[in-house]
Amino acid sequence: MTGKNHMLFGSVASLYFLPKLGYEPDIMTTTAAIISSLIPDLDHPRAKINQKILPIKNRLGKIFFYCGIGSFLLYQYGIENRLTLAIAILLIMIGFSRHRSFTHSLIGSFAISSVVFFVLRNTLPYPVLLSFIVGLCSHLIGDYMTITGIGLFYPFTDKRYRFVLIISSSNMAEPFIGLFFIYLIIHYYINNDFSMNFFYSLFYSLFYMFK
Questions:
Q1: pTM of the predicted model, to two decimals?
Q2: pLDDT digit string (tens) for 179-189?
Q3: What distance in Å separates the CA atoms of residue 12 and residue 178, rounded to the nearest whole number?
Q4: Which of 1, 40, 112, 175 is most buried (most C-beta within 10 Å)?
């Protein structure tokens, strides 16, 4: 699934899932879901976020960038602080991981969600953190429906798992999937009496942020 469709899927998942748990979606929750929907692809040097932050945009550059930050945290803070240690290990794992392996696995998703939760639990409201997890999970679901599949149970097995209904980012299915997600977003805002100005400002600012 393409990066833009991941962002749209994350937005849709947050908008429709949070009300089921009694929380009202807002621009913070939707933003959290859109950002987190791109997190698993940090294992790929050409991912949308990596294209913005990597000084050297290839696999070696990715390894040096994430492993460098992780190593700096270990050097600066040692291993006494468990949270800092967890962040450092997570960054190093992202640096070395192959595409759709660790960050696309159940263990990787749990590790990323746990670190974000414990780092930001006193800073961000609970619905925003919950929306972050929803967006992260939406990425796995999206890639689970692609031809390549995901390493769901990595590192216990390298087997890729995929849904029976598979799609390819190179075929005509992706544009239609994107249009379907856009329809669901518009449908949500219309049915919940949000102003169209709010919808347009939210959608266009976030959708084209990583264009």
A1: 0.86
A2: 888 888 888 88
A3: 11
A4: 40
